[in-house]
Amino acid sequence: MEARFDYLGKASAGKFFKHLVSAGRTLADSPLSITTQELVRMRASQINGCGSCLDIHTKEAAAAGESAVRINLVATWREATVFTDAERAALELAEQGTRLADTPGGVTDEAWANAAKHYDDAQLADLISVIAVINAFNRINVIARRPGGDYEAGQLS
Asked: What is the pLDDT of residues 39-77, one digit of tens each?
């Protein structure tokens, strides 16, 4: 598959993308674990059909020490036994935050309360940020049809 549009080759788009990358990098020092961040990024990217982001975040998760089993089971996290209750809460929030139009009110009070049970306010703020940023990246890449497959872990660091 080839990209349909060279988004990054356009000056204004490149400037926007640079700021979006900077926003994502603010999460490097987050109290929210990198594992949880990558699981959320992978799940949102799966839902949105973003091969480019899924390529990036499966490889970054593996480089951060995530197991192949957990990476492979993210799509079926409800049926898998390898995720903690906190991770499940984050994945549910990520799914609902990605599929905003599917539920009246966007994110249910139940999903929010479950996440708040496992994460403090700083972690919740960062979880919202991870969900927002990955969805923005997904939309850019899906619209421009940027293919995945050639990313190497650490390439964007």
From this structure: 999 999 999 999 999 999 999 999 999 999 999 999 999
CATH H-level superfamily of 33-144: AhpD-like (1.20.1290.10)
Looking at 1-157, which runs of residues are DSSP E strands? none
Task: Phi first, then psi: give them for residue 132, nearest 5 degrees.
Answer: -65, -45
Largest CA distance in the chain: 46
DSSP state of 11: H
Phi then psi for residue 89, to 5 deg, are -65, -40
125-151 pLDDT per residue, tens: 999 999 999 999 999 999 999 888 888
What is the per-residue burial (b if ≥16 Cβ within 10 Å, else e) of 131-152? bebbbebbebbbeeebebeebe
Q: Helices 109-118 & 85-98, crossing angle to 10 degrees?
A: 140
